[in-house]
Amino acid sequence: MGDRWAQRLMRNPFLAPVYEKAYRPLLGWAFMGFDLDHLRNERALTVRALRLTPGHLVLDVACGPGLFTRAFARAVAPAGLAVGMDMSGPMLERARTTNAHERARYVFGDATDQPFPDDAFDAVNCYAALYLIPDPFAAFDEMLRVLRPGGRISLMTSRESPYRLVRPVQSRVLGVTGLRMFDADEFTGRLRAAGFTEITQEIHGVAQYVAATAPA
Questions:
Q1: Distance of CA 155 to the CA centre of its chain
Q2: Under 8 Å between Cβ of 123 and 188
Q3: Domain containing 36 — which CATH number?
Q4: 2: pLDDT confidence band, cut at 50, 70 and 90?
Q5: How many other CB atoms sit within 10 Å of the CB of residue 76?
Q6: What is the domain range of residue 158?
Q7: What pLDDT is attached to residue 159?
Q8: Could you give the CA distance from residue 19 to residue 27 in angstroms, rounded to a whole number?
Q9: Which of 213, 146, 163, 159 has the alpha carbon at shortest distance from 186?
Q10: Which of 60, 108, 207, 210 could link 84 by a cystine bridge, Cβ 3.0 to 4.6 Å?
Q11: Distance (Å, rounded) from C-alpha 184 to C-alpha 205?
């Protein structure tokens, strides 16, 4: 898909200061079908989906300014660790400034070639990023690789329109920006094929929330 403007935007130093307070809430609200209650509780819901408890080691892929990473750090404290990984230097700098926590670490890394060993994390999350990544399924495979047996995975990404006539227009318009829409079964199907259990999926607007447990 190439390095379209949506990916370049996330690395723009001028976006990081406004992303947390304006860009992310407004875009997320529209993306979720204007479900304000879900938007308000999205971090707590993700902590619950990942089943985080003190002592866990959790990875937040494409963490941006660390909004979820800090929530994870609070959930796994005092002995656990939340690692936020991103390819945007400005976003990581913002995360270390505004979402610091004694149990959070922020690292530079490529979602499609993660700098971690196999089975490294008790939980892995990727929220609102897979549709921006040029090779999303390579990133998804890496998430599965670094997740330990029995661990939890959670992701929020896009869902293409359920209306067949709308899909080609949606794909062409968003394809220009680099945003990708996924079929409702693209990730749940891959998880089933990989032996994951307790697979759940919620649809809110054009967003899908998927969580599952890795095979033991």
A1: 5
A2: no
A3: 3.40.50.150
A4: very low
A5: 24
A6: 5-213
A7: 85
A8: 10
A9: 159
A10: 60
A11: 12
